[in-house]
Amino acid sequence: MISSPLWLAALLLTPASLPGPTGLPQKGEPPLTAQTQISGGPRPSEQTAVTFDHADLSIEVRPKQRRIEGSAILSFTARAPLASLVIDLDRNLPVAAVAVDGEPLPKRAWSNPDGQLRIALARPLAAGEKVSARIDYAGTPHVAANAPWNDGMVWSTTPDGRPWIASTTEGYGCDLLWPCLDFPAGEPRSVDLHIIVPAGLKAPANGRLIGVETFPDGRTRWNWQARQPNTYAIALAIGPFEEVTAIYQSRYGNKIPLHYWHLPGKAEQARALFAEFAPTLDFFEEVIGPYPFADEKLGVVETPHMGMEHQTINAYGNNYAKAPEGFDWLFQHELSHEWFANQMTAANWDDYWLHEGFAQYMQPLYGQWREGDGRYLVMLETQRNRITNVAPVVRDKLLSEEEVYEPSRGGAGTDIYFKGAWTLHTLRWLIGDRAFFAATRRLVYGRRDPQPGNFAPRYTSTREFEAIVKEESGRDLGWFFDAYLRRAALPELVETRSGDRLRLEWKSGGPFPMPVEVKVGDRIERVNMDAGAAELTLPPGAHVAIDPMARVLRRSIAVERFQAWQATQARLARP
């Protein structure tokens, strides 16, 4: 997901924000239940007692009515005795019929009062038994108030008036669109996806295109197959798209299909963005490892909202903006999520920073790969000034997406991006490149030697990452992760100078033996602070600079004053 409401102004210029036809649902309509707005967090025992084997989804989109009609065949294996199925589905999409293992159920056997569809099984299942449920549903899906930060459908039009439609579901969850298990570890192992759209429109989606069927009235059905998409990755992207394609020869010896679907009239801008696909992919494959979905595609589609990491069909809505670093930050950010969110998925939203912190860090890292240390440091500085320290990044409990992302719910907000990225920057310096990238590779792939075909999407956690770092670095760094992730306030380095003596001492909420570089005159030395403090003897009149290359994330009073000034200016600018 993209990081900050600072980009919302750009959305005000898109067709998505124009008033819709009278009588049709507008932004924020129809309303959602409290249950539907929860994604993740504690789950019913019936959901954790199954393995989600397969989803066969058919969705017809009717733009004129702002309506969808769907049929989902969901296959599960019981991991424990099971008497009923509990499946998340927004009640704005009423269920017309349910069948279990091909047998239609009477209406009394299922109900959905608040957004969790409960289906009573004719007989209890034993562990290891399989069951299949078909759910037919239709209705008016919730319209996003401000996608992708507030989820739902975006019903828009192209400049010449044709439908241009998209959906996002990361925050409120997959149940806005289809019957699912709405928590991160609820991914189906495989999906067949069939999207039916009006004549003249295309429906790029997840995975491999199996074929396109045309009905007598001109409607088309787009048939896709995907393996283990994350729960919010299944999305709609519909429009009169044109397509740019190529085949990428990977450094790992395999070939990867590249696809970009863009609006008509954007061919020149589209080809310029498409030219970034290959070098960005090469960066990730060199620094992190093989593209995880090479057997399907690397796909991007232009959308009437900013963006989202929809597996193998990332949403792009940055209006081809230019930036001083010379690459499109949004394309690069969403592509990074193919490794950090789609291949490696946090099983609990509490570990959300593993998606966004790594994705955010990949931007200065890409700048360093392209241009060197200067670009890396400039890009990191921009991120440093946006760290707020309002709440811990990790709370070590089962949380919903909103409880992590929303400060009003006690969450760390955008610190999962910027503080997460700076935590990784400091960790890389502390343990060195070899250990850092080895640990990152194991986190993503679950192994040290990833090659195309020898890994699969996996779940992980902050605790696992800590254990991997310990193994790769040979050091127990629990104090490091506690300081940066489990406490809100940053460690503060206190400097006391008396004559030729300089004392450095860390103030933190616990042990913090972080070394620091000190520049004395023209010489830089790394000062160990195993007990959280150290003293240096200085030459007479020597000039001293602490941490001259900004290696260590620590409290900065200057940044705090800058942020306070920014907030004051913003208040004064309001009408």
Q: Which percent bin holds the helix content?
A: 10-25%
Name of the CATH class of the largest domain: Mainly Beta
Structural class: alpha+beta
Annotated CATH architecture of the largest domain? Sandwich
Let me know the average pLDDT: 95
Q: Identify the overall geometry.
A: globular
**Sheet with most strands:** 8 strands, mixed
Low-confidence runs (pLDDT<50, min 5 residues)? 5-20
How far from one another are the termini? 31 Å
Major sheet: arrangement of strands: 5-4-8-2-1-11-13-12
Q: Report the count of strand segments.
A: 27
Helical element count?
A: 13
Within the CATH hierarchy, at the fold level, what is the topology of the largest domain? Immunoglobulin-like
Total count of domains:
3
Instruction: Please state roughly what percent of the residues sit in beta strands, choosing from under 5%, 5-15%, 15-25%, 25-35%, 35-45% or over 45%.
Output: 25-35%
CATH superfamily of the largest domain: tricorn interacting facor f3 domain
- What gyration radius follows from the Cα positions, in whole Å? 25 Å
